[in-house]
Design goal:
CATH topology of the largest domain: Tetracycline Repressor, domain 2
CATH superfamily of the largest domain: Tetracycline Repressor, domain 2
Strand order of the largest sheet: 1-4-3-2
Distance between the termini: 95 Å
Number of strands: 7
Order of helices and strands: EEEEEEEHHHHHHHHHH
Radius of gyration: 31 Å
Helix content: 40-55%
Length: about 270
Amino acid sequence: MEEPFGIRLTAALIASRRARAALRPTGDGRASIRWTGTSRVLWKSTLTQSSRLQFKDQSVYISAMSHQTPVQLPRGRPRSFDAEAAVERAMGVFWSRGYHATALPDLLRATKLSRGSLYAAFGDKHSLFLRALDRYVANALTRMDVELDSRREPVDGLRAYLAGYVDRASGANGRRGCLLVATAMELAGHDAEVDRRIGSFFKAMEARVADALSRAKAAGKLADGVEPSSAARILVCFVEGLRVVGKTAPTRITSQATVDALLDRFIR
């Protein structure tokens, strides 16, 4: 029994998006069309003379009279993993080992991806590292936005901000260190993309701290002679230095006492 509308379409190997068609009469009222690319057969079909063939995007349409039958070209498999979860796991590897000491097998084990999937999703090791660094920065800024929320009393916000650094710079947390500080020491001055990200983060943090100090000054809570922008710069340098000292795993009491001694110089 003849197929509907006398159309038979057989998909062969897809070699190129550019194709040419050669019509060859078959002698039985039909025409055989052979689609060819640069060197290999793309599509081969047989259709009636009343049919017409059209291209639209990546689909081939063969129509007889007013009827059209779409044949969709094959597509790649949809991504079957959580890219953000993979970035999170990769961030942990870079954080623990550093950029240069992290090898591709380390990332494949951590992300549970094949080499092909990792490259298809992220490009290469450096691109994945930048994604991980961006994630780390975004997490840090989100945390600061909560701690220094303008709806809070500004001095309370500053204390919460510094308390967070005390927690991250003490004990086992302190030994882990800061991914940004470690990256700055390893790559700053050698990687323009890293330089831009780290510089932008420090400026953003300084702006948030300066805003809190300005609100404290407006509320009459800053000590005489304290200028918000200068004090903010000092505090940013202080907390990042605290992360470096934290690698020696100081006690929380020691870190908190150091923070209180500095903040008391700025606050009435």
